[in-house]
User: Fold these one by one.
Assistant:
Number 1:
Amino acid sequence: MAVRKTIQVVPRARRTLTSLRNLGYDLRHAVADIVDNSVSAGATTVKVTVHFDGTRSWIRISDNGRGMNAETLTEAFRYGSEREYNRTELGRFGFGLKSASTSQCRRVTVVSRADAPGAALEARQLDLDHIDQVDKWEIFDLAPDELPEPTRSLLEGTAGTVVLWEGLDRVLRFQDPFGGWAKRQLISHAEDIDEHLGMVFHRFLAGEVADREPLRITVNGTPVESWDPFCRSESSTSALQEEDVEVPSQGGNGIVHLSPFVLPNQNHFSSQAAWRRASGPKSWNRQQGFYIYRADRLIQSGGWCRLRAIDEHAKLARISLEFFPELDSAFGVNVAKASVTLPEELRQELTPLVKNWGRVADAVYRQKQQPPSPPPRRTKPSGVTSASPAPTVRTSTGGNDPSFEHVSSSKPATSSPTLVNHRDLGATSRASDAAPLSARQALEAAAAQVGESEALNRITSALRTMSPEMAHGLGW
């Protein structure tokens, strides 16, 4: 057989990068993707800094992980970079660092020092303006005296990595980037990042992930708090029968682990503050349903993946559904790790279970019965975290639902003249039992009391469009 002639067609750098900026990231998902890399590098501390300075504003994510040498750092800037991923790592596609960064900014600088004796400080920079000009896949190898000021002095004598985003054209979309509205929006973004990281990495923050120290994340110096969607600290939370379902995929069969919980009726929460905190960023109705984890990292928070409709009477049902990367193809995980689709084989197994969980949640909601006592804890396999009885194993024969934020929490403010202080701004009130409710909290509590949280969500969405200043002043 004759050998066919081939012609190599190299993608145009300028046009390809413009397309890759639109892979579905918003700011909080983009930051979470960088934090994924920090977690994979064994970091125990991650610091997110959001700095406002008009067009010179920047966002920085730094960690104390293993760091990278020159070769690894250069390869990290290659789209579709290849390396070996272990089973518990969050990355998989070789796109995260570049795509997450350029989705928000025009210039990304990464400075890193490997965890090795005598390791040198390495720095690389991807500049979209330069690529637009030369139309080539080029990055800069920065010398120490060329480092941007916000990256200097952070890794002196220590291992770790610093990622700096400058030219925040996708974040600061305002005619007056130095104006008060632009500053308030960036502060609001900082709060969203705080809330989102507290939800997505809540198992890591709470020290629930096997074989690793608890993770500490700060946003502008303020520690991010873990938000447990299942309210396991509430004595009246009911942990129902666990289920293991075997699901086929291209990479071989894998186990999906289900841990259903029914939260207490409002009258059985330890306090009204705890009830409000448990409601989640989208309020009770839209927080019901599945919480889908991949390698202990939350991908989807709430929603029934089209297995049933959202229902006021089922709002207390929340189900942990976790899988590992061998099932990525079956779940259709996207590059941004922000959405999944349930495999059809799994949907068939879940249909009767969802009906049963809904009936239990309905009974608790109507107070026809007290929530059953939580079953005893059991020892689980490595990488699986929950508190409930031994699972039923099901073998299958064979929803993309994106609620994705973290609820506000009470935390002390940390001020700094160089940082956007999202705690001191007053955009949202962090209420406790002893403090008066803000307008937002009062409205949300009243809506929840009469079962009209969905209506309030629609009203606030319209208010953000019609009068964004008013919405922002109320905390939305």
Number 2:
Amino acid sequence: MNYTKLSDNIREVLLKKIADRKIVAGVIGLGYVGLPLAVETAKSGFRTIGFDVKKEKVDSVNQGHNYIGDVADSDLKMLVGKGMLAATTDFSRIGKVDFVAICVPTPLDVHRQPDTSYVESAVKSIAEHLHKGMMVVLESTTYPGTTEELVKPVLESSGLKCGEDFYLGFSPERVDPGNAIYKTKNIPKVVGGFGTDASELISVMYEAVLEDKVFRASSPTVAEMAKMLENSYRNVNIGLINEFAVFCNKMGIDVWEVIEAAKTKPFGFAPFYPGPGLGGHCIPVDPCYLNYKASAYGFRFLTIEASMKVNDRMPEYCVKRIGDILNRRFRKPLNGSRILILGVAYKQNTDDCRESPAIRIIDKLRTEGADIMFFDPHVPGFLYRDNVYEGERELTAELIRRADMVVITTLHSKVDYEFVRRHAKSIFDTRNATKEFPNRSNIELL
């Protein structure tokens, strides 16, 4: 379609192309968010091109080799085989797409300030190949105002005008790696576009791919703020229950039973659960993005700051508990004790180690002189502070018996915790993985 001959009817042309599955879609960033989105888009009948700077990811996709747990191997192989999905490091091919979603990382820098360099790079690549009628949507989690203040000016530097020549919006990713129920296909979407046409077109495109109707926010900034609220809500409530766990331990109360009692209330209470700390790309990171923006307005989120401090202290609290248990049960110090860590992924049934509290616990225990082993069925090893850590290949009775203490830091369904209980001298369970066991004499809970 020659968009240079179109003016008022661009919207109608795009709506028809969506309905006829003639849109060529692009996804920039083939990680935990981008690859599942690219697969679902291709499965819905849209020819899809995935873009990534990492050649190994591109090669894996093009060979039909999946590396994301939430993507079915058979789906990827089928789509690649049919020519519905391809990946490339050649960003000039963005000029061939009608719809492009930006799904790149938005980490923190060494000063724990927002690092938007990946977004900036992706947007510059789009701007170089932007054409009339293109729909651009940012999915990467970021501070409110990013789409308007960062993305829009770079795209308009191409000479094309937002809302007239191309359509721009923000739609927050809501991926929950390892969730057996909610995946990309059935997680409701929020879209905030610049103008009603952008909101409509981007929403209709998502509705053609996903199961639910899209909630149309009045602006990209509202959609960006909604994402901040979602994850700050979780951060604050996890901080609250972690603080309850620390206090309940001082009183000799089982916090897990307290939660079970409280959740019988049918209104006004949503259960959250304690743990060794926060991990993943969003919940520990998003409040930093929000506070960055708030500081420009002379505002501080005191509740969020307090919860972040509580959650950030949990790995250190766990190390103290480990030392206390060793001393009380065996009269042994941390220095020289052998500790087996079960799980280094930040959450169950994934290989995602980003911001994992288990890794911080390992680092702190080694600093204290403990001899550390770890087993994770999804993570054979990891890199932390330029050090390579290799995990145990198999969880054997001998391995468990060698440890003075087993610390459960991730609740993986592939681990037989009853087998662990039978062979462990002592267990510190930070995830309540052992709650159903009648014999708990060698177990202490967070």
